[in-house]
Amino acid sequence: MRSEKFSKPIKLLQRLLIYLIEEVSLLRYGLFFISDVLVFSFAYFILTPRSHGLGSNGLPIAGLTFWNALYFSIVTVSSLGYGDISPMGFSKFLVCLEVLSGLILMGIMLAKMTSARLSYHVTRLFSSEIQKRIEHFAEEFKVLHGRFKNIMQSLQETPSNLHASDQSKVFEECTQTISKFHSRSSSLASYITYEVEHCNFFSIAPTDSMNHMAEAIYQAISLSGQMVLSMTAKARSALLTPVNSKGLLYALDEHKQICCMVRENCMDNSLKREFSGILEICESFPENFFAVPILVAEESQPDQKLEKSNEPQPIDYSKKNQEI
Question: What domains are defined for the chain?
Fold first, then answer.
């Protein structure tokens, strides 16, 4: 429970650090560094007459000028510390803050100057790797779309024309496809979650590849729902085992999680619209859509409804006017 309680603040802190390191320009850090030195110089200058500023041999420096305070601030922020001037009272606390802020700012500026070119090449390689991964996921979901479509066509055949051995093959293929659908959805959600936590993923990932993957996911989810609707009540009783039902439900939950990450972290409106369509179709499934129906009458044709059963009701999959 404690780990879950602190996980969100930790993730927010990670994102803030990534933003400060990767997104803030070197010029801004330079201006902030100069401002940091000037602000502490002014503080030392104001506090010295009150015996909380700068001194020498344990006594406040009489007639301290702003240039003396600036000199001390530069010596302090660079960690030189000549010792000719020393802090007194509250300025000791200010010196600690200035040293820490100076080390952090100089470290970031030096890192950004030395790694600017390297960062460019690393980003290009990382973008290329993301594109390969995303395209691979897209192809896998397209394959699942085709398998759902083949299963749906097989299940729509008249039961009397489908031999027992053929039924067994169709049922086995359906179980394997649902398992694959769940595992691929889980892998994609884990991959995007990890990348979002460690980098500005959606600014690096190619938009065309992400849109291609979103289209493949939408079609796979749509066909999974149509496949269930195409089953007879008897077929659903055989196929919608607890494992298969949970596999389909968990796959939808994974895609809902992905859509939420896109909505929160992506700046591209076209990509947001694509994943909004996925979220809409995931949320359109009723809670008991993948439940096993109660057989209260003899088997009817797949396109007929059994009265007084909990058979799933049709869902409108006509979004974008696509023919799947």
Answer: 2-112 (1.10.287.70), 122-321 (no CATH)
pLDDT over 70 (residue 167): no
In the β-sheet with 59-60, what is the strand arrangement from edge to edge?
A: 59-60, 54-56, 86-87
* Tokens read off for 124: 């290009």
- Amino acid 106 reads M
pLDDT at 186: 94
- Going by the DSSP 8-state scheme, the letter that residue 321 receives in this structure is G
CA distance 217 to 141: 6
CB-based contact 282:214 (threshold 8 Å) = no
In contact, 152 and 126? CB cutoff 8 Å: no
Both tokens of 170, joined, read: 């169709």
**Cβ atoms 238, 174 nearer than 8 A:** no
pLDDT tens digit sequence for 264-300: 888 889 899 999 999 999 988 877 777 655 444 444 4
Q: 3-state DSSP call for residue 60?
A: strand
What number of helices (H) and strands (E) belong to the chain?
10, 3
Tokens 């049922």 correspond to what residue?
171
Rounded to 5°, the CA angle 110-113-118 comes to 120
Q: Is the dihedral of CA 293, 299, 303, 306 positive or negative?
A: negative
Query: Virtual CA dihedral for 276, 279, 284, 289, nearest 10 degrees?
Result: 160
Q: Which helix (H) or strand (E) holds 246?
A: helix 242-265
DSSP string, 146-175: HHHHHHHHHHTS-GGGS-HHHHHHHHHHHH
Closest CA to 234 of 287, 162, 144: 162
Question: Residue 118: what pLDDT?
Answer: 66
Residue 87 vs residue 7, higher pLDDT? 87
Contact 145, 324 (CB under 8 A): yes
The two structure tokens encoding residue 50: 């009150």
